[in-house]
Design a protein that fits this description.
Blueprint (H helix, E strand, L loop, with lengths): L8 E2 L10 E2 L8 H8 L32 E2 L3 E2 L26 E6 L7 H13 L3 E5 H4 L2 H4 L5 H4 L3 E3 L12 E6 L1 H9 L8 E5 L14 H9 L5 E4 L2 E8 L6 E2 L2 E2 L9 E3 L2 E8 L2 E5 L7 E7 L2 E8 L1 E5 L7 H4 L11 E7 L9 E4 L4 E5 L7 E5 L2 E6 L4 E6 L4 E4 L4 H12 L19
Parallel strand pairs: 5-6, 5-8, 6-7, 8-9
Antiparallel strand pairs: 1-2, 3-4, 10-26, 11-15, 11-25, 12-13, 14-15, 16-19, 16-23, 17-18, 17-22, 19-20, 20-21, 22-25, 23-24
């Protein structure tokens, strides 16, 4: 996410001058407003021009409220804190551009799905014909339908292969293409524990909430992405640190831990083991196989805010708000909202409602001292492990979002997914009253 070059400005002049405290992006020249209002309303992938700069998509007064005055009476003012936690960017300004033409692409295919074999082959043939370096996971090519296809052999020889948990490809991929359902996008996120290349996801799975593209016109759509002609939605991720007491260090193979964590992210303290994960949807802490209620303490910036007594708790991103959190009764939040959601799972309290906290806070989850049993934690449904007394889970917003390529724009794609995949607010329409003729 690019940091705004212009910070919120506050003059150090006399506190009685309200006009001296204003936001430069609100009160700048009106030419920016005219530029924004004059652009085409349709921002679809097929119609939007390629842009090398996001300057003309700058925020205007129509996109956010005026900056509030930060002086209160003749003497009081808000303390100016130069530390910036997160920059909130206008979704319309999030456009894909390339510093250099992309050369390598990672193709992620849902395994054990015969319906994806032909789309996978067609896509790979198209990419190799356009002189792209194609990376494919080795277990995908071990599928008998692909391994025994002699016609696909010449294309297969051009592939670069890798193995999850063994090979690090984070600095070799320019962009990613996913074929499958939402799980393929989550899997792509897990492969990159740092910066994530742009992701183009085709809807070839069961749900397709995070996969806006249809495969029928993949040639033109992929070409436009290669040319840098696409809108982006920056899906925030969670940076999770798990600290375990009295655990032996796991074996390292080729710099990658057996549990998928890059060895540089594993530290060793006295009697402690620290592991880090990047999570796109949610961190789930639950009671596991135990019949007792889970009993975990939740801290926010070091302060105990509540104890969860129930089946567990979900800490999710806005992207994950439409997944497990929605099933547990939470609100659905647009991916551009900088927030973290805390949702209890079947709490033994009628007043325990889901809450939303700012993205810059740090959450910590630990077993309560009087907990009867241990807890279990999973990250986007993977890497499930037991949490014992003395262990802790620290969660905050990651500085490495996942840039997901939009079919139209971030707002339209999201509401279309709500309507088509989750059938949001779908009901039979109420009939109007029949107009009765006046009696004479």
């Amino acid at each position: 996410m690019e940091m705004n070059r212009e910070k919120l400005c506050a003059s150090k002049a006399d506190g009685s001058s309200d006009s001296a405290y204003h936001c430069s992006t609100c009160h700048d020249d009106e030419e920016w407003s005219n530029t924004s209002r004059g652009r085409a309303k349709s921002r679809s992938l097929s119609a939007s021009p390629a842009l090398g700069s996001t300057k003309e998509f700058r925020r205007t007064r129509s996109l956010h409220g005026p900056c509030p005055v930060t002086t209160f009476g003749p003497k009081a003012c808000m303390l100016q804190n130069p530390k910036t936690i997160m920059h909130i960017q206008d979704p319309a300004s999030q456009r894909l551009t390339w510093n250099k033409p992309p050369k390598s692409v990672l193709v992620i295919k849902k395994i054990r799905d015969a319906s994806l074999l032909q789309p996978f082959k067609d896509l790979c043939v198209y990419l190799t014909e356009n002189n792209m370096i194609v990376y494919v996971e080795k277990k995908v090519l071990e599928d008998p339908a692909i391994a025994n296809d002699d016609n696909f052999g010449p294309v297969k020889k051009k592939f670069c292969t890798f193995r999850e948990d063994y090979d690090d490809i984070s600095n070799q991929i320019d962009f990613i293409i996913c074929l499958g359902g939402d799980g393929t996008l989550l899997y792509a996120s897990s492969l990159f524990q740092g910066s994530v290349p742009p992701v183009m996801a085709f809807h070839l799975g069961s749900l397709g909430f995070l996969t806006p593209f249809n495969f029928e016109n993949f040639q033109s759509q992929v070409t436009q992405v290669i040319e840098g002609n696409a809108a982006l939605v920056l899906r925030s991720r969670l940076k999770v640190k798990v600290v375990k007491e009295h655990r032996e260090k796991m074996a390292v193979q080729n710099g990658i831990e057996e549990n998928g964590v890059v060895s540089t992210n594993l530290e060793k303290e006295v009697g402690k083991q620290i592991m880090q994960y990047q999570v796109l949807n949610e961190v789930v802490v639950d009671r596991g196989p135990s019949s007792y209620l889970s009993n975990v303490d939740v801290f926010l910036d070091g302060h105990l805010i509540t104890t969860v007594q129930g089946d567990g708790v979900i800490v999710s991103t806005p992207t994950g708000s439409t997944a497990y959190a929605a099933a547990a009764g939470a609100s659905m939040i647009h991916p551009n909202v900088p927030a973290i959601m805390i949702t209890p799972i079947c709490p033994h309290s009628l007043s325990f409602r889901p809450i939303v906290v700012p993205a810059g806070v740090e959450l910590k989850i630990m077993l309560s001292p009087d907990a009867r049993n241990t807890a279990w934690v999973s990250f986007d449904g993977r890497k499930r492990q037991e949490i014992c007394h003395g262990d802790s889970i620290s969660i905050t917003t990651s500085c490495y979002p996942l840039p997901s390529i939009c079919f139209r724009d971030p707002v339209s794609d999201w509401f279309e997914s709500l309507a088509e995949c989750l059938h949001w607010n779908v009901r039979k329409k109420q009939n109007n009253f029949a107009v009765e003729e006046e009696e004479f």
